[in-house]
Write a structure and sequence with these properties.
The radius of gyration is 19 Å and the shape is elongated. Helix content is 48%, strand content 16%. It folds into 2 domains: 74 residues, Arc Repressor Mutant, subunit A (Orthogonal Bundle), CATH 1.10.10.10; 145 residues, 2-Layer Sandwich (Beta-Lactamase). A 5-stranded antiparallel sheet has the order 4-3-7-6-5, with helices on both faces. Strands 1-2 form a two-stranded antiparallel sheet. By secondary structure, it is an alpha+beta fold. Helix 6 runs antiparallel to helix 10.
Length: 238
Amino acid sequence: MDSRKEAILDAIVREYTETGTPVGSLVLTHKYNFPYSPATIRAEMAELERLGYLTHPHTSAGRIPTEWGYRYFVNMVKEEQALLAPESIVAKKRISSMHDRYERKLETASQVLSDLTASIAFAGFPGEIFSHGLGNLFSQPEFLEPGRVIKAAEIIDNLERLVDELPADFDTQIYIGSESPIGKSAGCSMVISQFRTPFGAPGYLGIVGPMRMSYPRALSAIKEVRKVLEEKHVRKED
């Protein structure tokens, strides 16, 4: 893909992530200061659609990314969207304050990660997974259809199986749409990371959200929470 198409695809993904509204050429022209005419942008958008990176709802002239479009964006964009300093401080304080039992720390970590990303988040290890934020996912416009809700709920019901089937050793993985190990037709994406627990067994952090999620922010949030969970911890016995 040439640089002009990449720039237009990048802008469409970012704009659609922010607004949830199909993106038209005029928005790109005025908001993103492209040095191209609206006609040129429309032609490039049509070509991106022909190549499978964009599609458009039948009720709108604007375009939205396809699964392929999101995958290209994720592979193309490597930077994280750093958390604001107050967000980082509050996240660390909330998780670190749960020092009496590591399980409480994991449960709080799932809540913090969910709050930071407005998605479902989970934290735990095989046999004990804590999740939070179901309402975040179902409040997204993508999940107004009952069928989509049912398929997404199946992902949450199968988090234990997901964790059991993950590779033995990995850093952070992004699964988009049908790439997901479970819930391939739910229209969700997952960002999953492994971390070290004090007990030797690997732990897992994850985010489940619409394909429209902000991947740079999700990566930053997981990195921040993982760092807190890997701090030295002394477990108190009951």
